Structures are given as structure tokens and as C-alpha cells.
Amino acid sequence: MLSEKMQAAINAQIQHELYSAYLYLAMSAHFEASNLSGFAKWTRMQANEEQEHSMKLFDFINDRGGRVKLEAIAQPPFEFGSPLEVFEQIYAHEQKVTSLIHKLYETALAEKDYPAQVMLHWFIDEQVEEEKNSGDIVAQLKMVDQHMGNIMYIDRHVGKRAED
Ligand code: MG
């Protein structure tokens, strides 16, 4: 059985993951409107992944006999900057999510909730990937002059990688 504290902390993380999905979807809409279909595809796939993350937590609470409580999700931004600015925002966002996952893990340690600790190992690994993937794109965008031809080249590259 989940402790009240652990349940509340996981419910809060469900909200964070759904906000991440919402944020990536807003970015995808921005890239669609900018005719950058590779970045649009990448951020859309990220949005789907974030929703899957929220469902992993949703299932975990239910499997442990807890009660999922969905909270309101904040409105994401509507206006975004250049692709480099968006990916810098993504990288910073993922770093923030990593710190939230680590805090959640600390709660699982304090609560001596071993199943939650095991479940969260997956999220800890996932955040290493999330930071690496977004960090790599920031690095690529920084390597080139911000001319449209260069941006379009990276857009195509990122769009292909999203299919792997
Ligand atoms: Mg996530």
C-alpha cells in the first residue's frame, strides 16, 4: 500500500509529466506553423512519450491500491523563439524534470517504499536520455550559423532521427 505522502508525490509527478506533454505539443504546433516538420515531428513524439510517462505513474498508483488524483494542467506558452531557443528551453525543462524525479526518489527512500524506488529507476535512466537527446540538438544548432538553409538541414536530420 502506498503511503499518503508517496501517493501525493506521484500524483504531482503525473501532473508534471502531462504538463511536459502539453509543452511539447505547443512547441510542435509552433514548428508546424514555421514549416519545420522535422522539429514538429520530434516534439510531437516527445509529447506522446511524456503522456506514456504519466501513464506509467498512473498505473503504478492503481497497481499499489492507491488513488489517482488528476490536477489542473497549466497553459503552455503560445509564442516560441528560434529553434535554438526552443531546444535550449527543452534542455532546461528536462533538467528541471530530472530534479523533480530525483526529489520523488528521495521521497521513496524516506518512505522506505522499495517498489517505488525500483519503478523510479526507469525514470532516472530515462532522464539521462532526455537530457542527452535535447542537449545534442542544442549543440548541433549552436554549431551552425542561424541561416535558414542550415536550420532546415538540422530539421530534416532531427525529423529522421525521430523515426528510429
Ligand atoms: Mg517525462
What's this, in brief?
The chain has 5 helices and no strands.
Topology:
Elements: H1 4-33, H2 37-63, H3 83-110, H4 114-143, H5 148-161
Helix pairs in contact: 1-2, 1-3, 2-5, 3-4
Characterize the structure shown.
- The protein has 164 residues and is mostly helical.
- It has one domain: Ferritin (Up-down Bundle), CATH 1.20.1260.10.
- The protein is 79% helix and 0% strand.
- The chain contains five helices and no strands.
- It has helices spanning 4-33, 37-63, 83-110, 114-143, 148-161.
- The relative contact order is 0.16.
- The mean pLDDT is 95.
- It binds magnesium ion.
- Residues 17, 20, 50, 53, 97 line the site of magnesium ion.
Rg, rounded, reads 17 Å
**What bound compounds does this protein have?**
magnesium ion
Structural class: mainly alpha
- CATH superfamily label: Ferritin, core subunit, four-helix bundle
Low-confidence runs: none
Q: Helical region count?
A: 5
Highest-level CATH class: Mainly Alpha
Question: What fold name goes in the CATH topology slot?
Answer: Ferritin
Sheet-strand content, in percent, reads: under 5%
**CATH architecture assignment:** Up-down Bundle
The succession of helices and strands, N to C, reads HHHHH
The separation of the N and C termini measures: 38 Å
